[in-house]
Write a structure and sequence with these properties.
With 97 residues, the chain is mostly helical. It is built from four helices and three strands. Strand 2, helix 3 and strand 3 form a beta-alpha-beta unit.
Length: 97
């Protein structure tokens, strides 16, 4: 938990992240590599993504191209986006762009 925001547990989202991170840390202690938590932002507003970002989350998954395009413009550039689900061929340029 070192390096995490001291206000993490002050919100429902913060408490949920802390719980998941604690379980990941506990499980990861049994293996050599540390897993990456990808928070799925499907149908969640950009404000919630920003709240998770402030809590230290940097990897987000999105499965709607339109939402990914909008959200990626509203959050810091160091967010790592993961496209999840099926991708229609006519949407490829938007995801890669």
């Amino acid at each position: 938990m070192a390096g995490r925001d001291q206000k993490t547990a002050s919100t429902a989202l913060g408490r949920a992240f802390e719980d998941v991170r604690t379980r990941i840390d506990k499980s990861a202690s049994k293996i050599k590599s540390k897993p990456i938590l990808v928070a799925v932002s499907k149908l969640k507003p950009a404000e919630m993504v920003l709240e998770a970002y402030k809590l230290g989350q940097r990897h987000f998954g999105e499965n709607y191209v339109q939402e990914l395009v909008v959200k990626s413009a509203e959050v810091p550039s160091d967010v790592r986006w993961h496209f999840i689900g099926h991708l229609q061929s006519n949407k490829c340029r938007q995801v890669l762009g």
